[in-house]
Amino acid sequence: MPLQFQDKVVLITGGGSGIGCATAIKLSNLGATLALCDINFDNLEATAKLCASTLCHLDDVDVGSTQEVSKFVETVVSKFGAIHHVFNCAGVNPTSYPLETTTDEYWDKLVNTNLKGIYNVTRAVIPHLKSGASFVNVSSISGLRASAQQAIYCATKYGVIGFSKCMALELGPKGIRTNIVAPGYIDTPTNAGIVKGGEAVTRMINGNALGRLGTPEDVADVVAFLFSEESRYMNGSVVEIDGGIKMSSTTSG
């Protein structure tokens, strides 16, 4: 039976580009009502045009801001009456720095978005969820494997997994599931390797058994499955979406 999301409201952070945008399009095609946020409103509007067959609410939100997140969630519930699924996708990709040259500003930027952002959204949404709801949170292969000169990014992505597994334990008795996706080398505009280009892209392509970069759609398909009833006994799972990663120091995204 094909996945169906009619009468389901799905909240997606980071919906303006990459994996968040692809997931919005996927769920729109499956009938979901969407609540999308991003720090770039123009990008959100572009996503909404690609989801023209469904009802969307758009808002520019810094997920690291408790106040902005709370206002967004309250607006979504007021407008649609419920939230059924949450895709915590907003994140900042890494820039490689030796630890001794890492700045407080860089730490704050990554931690506030990649980790505190999930905390803010989760805390704001929980009071509005009922049994059958679910979360999917975005970690990374860098949440499972360390990378030199990416200590701060790895810390946030390892943190996402730990936080999400605690969510699964705490919310599971209420019938609310939490799962995690850990993408590998995905072809998105903000992927550090894509930005570098050239040999960095070649290393990523050669860095997994399938010999290609992943696409945002590859991740979106897994997210839709994790929201569906077909994954009803998955809770606290980490799903690696990496094409069969090899042991290497290639930059992840």
Automatic annotation (TrEMBL):
Gene3D superfamilies: NAD(P)-binding Rossmann-like Domain
The Ketoreductase domain, residue ranges: 8-189
Record keywords: NADP, Oxidoreductase
GO molecular function, one term: oxidoreductase activity, acting on the CH-OH group of donors, NAD or NADP as acceptor
Record SUPFAM superfamilies: NAD(P)-binding Rossmann-fold domains
GO terms for biological process, alphabetical: fatty acid biosynthetic process
UniProt key word NADP: yes
SMART domains xref list: PKS_KR
InterPro entries: KR_dom, NAD(P)-bd_dom_sf, Sc_DH/Rdtase_CS, SDR_fam
Keyword Cell wall biogenesis/degradation among UniProt keywords: no
Stored PROSITE patterns: ADH_SHORT
A Pfam family assignment: adh_short_C2
Family as reported in the entry's similarity comment: Belongs to the short-chain dehydrogenases/reductases (SDR) family.
Protein name: NAD(P)-binding protein
Organism: Zopfia rhizophila CBS 207.26
